[in-house]
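Worked example

This section walks through a single chain of length 149. The input is the sequence exactly as stored; nothing has been trimmed or padded.
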Amino acid sequence: MECTVSWTGALGTRSGMGFVAETGSGHTLVMDGAPDAAKPENGGQNLAPRPMETLLAGAGGCTAYDVVLILKRGRHDVRGCTVKLDAERADVDPKVFNKINMHFTVTGKGVPAAAVERAIAMSHDKYCSASVMLGKTAEITTSFEFVEI
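Given that input, the structure is written out below as tokens.
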């Protein structure tokens, strides 16, 4: 796996904290820093997600992928899956995630709660590389609800 991240500055200038990532799979992702009122030249323009937000989103995508795949492989009629992640970061540098809660909302027909719980646990404990890695610094908790449609 590879990725190249390049500083873009702010709207083509060489100030600001904008970045573009070009992934090995041929996709691009734009990131930006938070604006800095005290030193505007050191802050972002708030035009894209922060890098740490992108990391959190990647963990959510990784685990949601697993949950859907595990449920589908179990021949469950899953129709939707969302995961809302709430994270807390350390107060001092490096400001790693120290707590993450992942709340899943799974929709479908006749999917047993035990199957959803098992799929989440399997993702969390075994398959989702991103959450296993983040679990080295963060306490990760999960919760879910199933919505019958």
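What to look for: The beta strands are 3-7, 18-23, 28-32, 77-89, 97-109, 139-148.
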